[in-house]
Amino acid sequence: MVNIAFFVFAAILLASAVRVITAKNPVHSVLFLILAFFSAAALFVLIGAEFVAMILVIVYVGAVAVLFLFVVMMLDINFQELRQGFLRYLPVGLVVGAILIVELGFLAATQLVGPIEAAGSASAIPPASELTNTQAIGHILYTDYVYAFQASGLILLVAMIGAIVLTLRSRKGVRRQQIGQQLDRKRDEVVALRKVPTRGGV
Amino acid sequence: MFETLAQLWDQLPLIIRIVASILVIAVPLLIGMAMLTYFERKVMAAMQLRQGPAMVGPFGLLQPFADGLKLLGKETVIPAGANRVVFVAAPMLTFLLALVAWAVIPFGAGLVLADINVGVLYLFAISSLGVYGIIMAGWASNSKYAFLGGLRAAAQMVSYEVSIGLVIITVLLCVGSLNLSKIVEAQKTVWFFIPLFPMFIIFFISALAETNRAPFDLPEGESELSGGFNVEYSSMTFALFFLGEYINMILMSAMTSVLFLGGWLPPLDIAPLNWIPGPLWFIFKICFCLFCFIWVRATLPRYRYDQLMRLGWKVFLPFSLIWVVLTAGVLVYFDLLPN
Q: How much helix, strand and coil, in percent to the nearest 5, is found in chain A?
């Protein structure tokens, strides 16, 4: 049963990954990318890594891909130009693909040891049967890999601040809503009751 | 009698048991959704000194079913410039996502379809996918109003998810588990809306934004976008959006009840209150939240778009972040951390 599920999800994953790069319409590409993320999450569930699966869906499908779709939908795309680019970028893509294949082969050849074994006996790790894998990830992240974890947090922070710095520009002559100022106004300062005589005006 | 039934149940094939348990959740949910539209119209009518639906059936109770039948009988119009596949897939996706989230909601002690370890994350993941139905509908319709509605929905839902995530983290800090049943059981002494009252308010307001309800219904904005993302939809495709939106409302109310209002637990574990079975308490709490949803809609005008973004990013996000740190600090200092 699990095997059948694995092959179904793996087939969907590969097929949608192929469609990502072959689909003519970029919006379709992003939608297939989402399907690929989703199938990958399903594969994670099958190997019992439900925390990673959910995070994959939340972060990639729920946030990153939404922004992808957001941008791609707003682009005014000329399909002719895209075709021309295809041949020009093909060598770069092939090189990246080749490097990835070599890396994967390297991993398979050296029988990669999992992070738990790699960490050795630096800290007492309870057996997986007593822990949910959310807790297990927490134990590893905050003990053996705490510096790497903090460093990646800092990198993300820098990226975030960088994005803000790049896009922030102060333009002159823009009227902004000052909510504090609006709330601070007293009735007497802004409203006045006057008796206006007929045909007299204010 | 009961035991023989239970034995019979165990003898049924797995697939039939699964389908039956899904139907036991989905069918009452759909009926509840129909009654919610009736409830909404009646409550809003009462608040605005009108009568509301009163003609079809006793007290107008059959009005939602009449509306549904009417939609079923209409013609499905697909605009000429629309992307047909995505156009039809969008409402189906919205409806599907609204339904699948119910798999992990605990209706009572042990009364849950899938009691998974990462229940909260599952709910969060599914509700963060809800935006796709809307954004796909907006794009595929090939209409500027629908497109604007879709873009607004994407920006709005992504913004408010961030604060919802932080609110959930605060609750998880107090529970020490991602399992929804355990979250409810952790509230036996005190419901979380008392110690975490500000987060309860933020969660409720973010839920309004997440379900695109008034005063955050900018993706629909009938006065400016003539109906928003679903302007090109008709007949059953529209009905699926409508169903999805209302089921999402019920889902968000259920999440509020589970996270803050003690799920199936009675307010106090004393005699007359704990005679009422848990699922009834749960339904009662959901109805209370839904009433608040409708109350807000009948009371408040729509937010302006920049105000909506300001509220999400500049008010809710910093505040909930501070509250996460504060909660963690208090829990560590007073040695109250679970486990």
A: 70, 0, 30
Quick one: pLDDT at residue A112? 58
CA B181, B184, B187, B193 dihedral sign is positive
B117, B127, B304: best to mutate for the A interface, most A CBs within 10 A: B117
The H or E element spanning position A185 is: none
ipTM for the predicted complex: 0.80
What is the C-alpha separation between B90 and B111, in angstroms, rounded?
31
Q: Which CATH code fits A1-117?
A: 1.20.120.1200
C-alpha triplet B95, B96, B99: angle, nearest 5°: 90
Backbone angles phi, psi at B111, to 5 degrees: -90, 80
Number of H helices, E strands in chain A: 10, 0
Residue with tokens 């990153």: A64
Instruction: Mark the ranges of chain A whose per-residue pLDDT is less than 50.
Output: 115-125
Bridge partners of B164?
none
Q: Which of B104, B115, B128, B210 to mutate to test the interface with A (most CBs of A within 10 A)?
A: B128
Does residue B198 have a cis peptide bond before it, meaning omega lies within 30 degrees of 0? no
The predicted structure's pLDDT at residue A78: 63
- Assess contact for A27 and A72: CB atoms under 8 A: yes
CB-CB under 8 Å, B121 with A61: no
Angstrom distances, CA of residue A122 to CA of A118, A143, B24: 10, 9, 50
What is the rounded CA–CA span in Å between residue A41 and residue A121? 30
Domain range annotation of chain A: 1-117, 128-168
Q: What is the DSSP letter of B108?
A: B
Mean pLDDT of B6-34: 83
Q: How many helices (H) and strands (E) does chain B have?
A: 14, 0
Residues B151-182: tens digit of each pLDDT: 888 888 888 888 898 999 999 888 888 888 88
From CA B163, how far away is CA B308, in angstroms rounded? Answer: 13
At A121 the pLDDT is 42
